[in-house]
Give the backbone structure.
Amino acid sequence: SRLKVSDMCDRANLAKSYISNQYVKPYAVFNEQMSEDYDQTSQVLIKLDEAISNGDILVYYQPIYSIDSGKYNSAEALLRLNDDMYGYISPEIFIPAAEENGMIHKIGKFVLEEVCRFIAGEKFKNLGLEYVEVNLSVIQCMSSELSEDVRAVMERYGVSDEQINLEITETAAAYAQTTMMDNINSLTDYGIAFSLDDFGTGYSNMKRIASMPFAIVKLDKTFADIDTDDKMMKVVKNTISMVKDMNMKIVVEGVETEESLREFSNLGVNYIQGYYFSRPLPQDKFISEVKRVNQS
């Protein structure tokens, strides 16, 4: 049967959305999978909005271990979404969807509120943690209101500038647009430190990254498998040396074995994050895990 012109336009727009950020792909051809993906994304966004309103989306915390102190010194805040119909929904699904429709701003404020509420509470004060890392997406960084919004939430809860560390990915850092740089510089002037997350997954302009005020570089979990490849070991050693020469501290993500922990300790990294120590945990279990290590 023949399609209506309006249906053809809808399909064309849907196909176009698949290549909107792919500069090497000049065209796209509609297929039914695109329609199914769109329907799934729409359902995920509905569930996400409901979860935020109902308190069903949770902030988990993954502790970060300091090699120098032999204790946890910080943590990364991570979102978890469970739905009665779909079960566990990965952030790799709902975060891109939220970025595309603008809901990421609502999510970002929710996470920062939850983290600041936790830091301001009595349970946090005796854990011996210096700060909590909060992720920022590219879309959030491009908002002219970001700096003011972050400072307003922190001031409302009485959270000091050194207790929050903001993470942006290597891909986000590569954008380095004017608004993003204004936000980063404004928040840095306020006293908030920045981490470069997932380093090694993108194609960075090292000159640009070196010019940005990062205090910490987080090596992507792909670096953790250094024992399998001599060439990879050389890349890791040189990367660590380069980052240290720029006076930035180093977190290695995705460490799962004692051997990896020992190797990175010998290479002089500062912090370790990964399943070897702990998975991301809900707040109560996170508190118990930090007490187990820091108060032993």
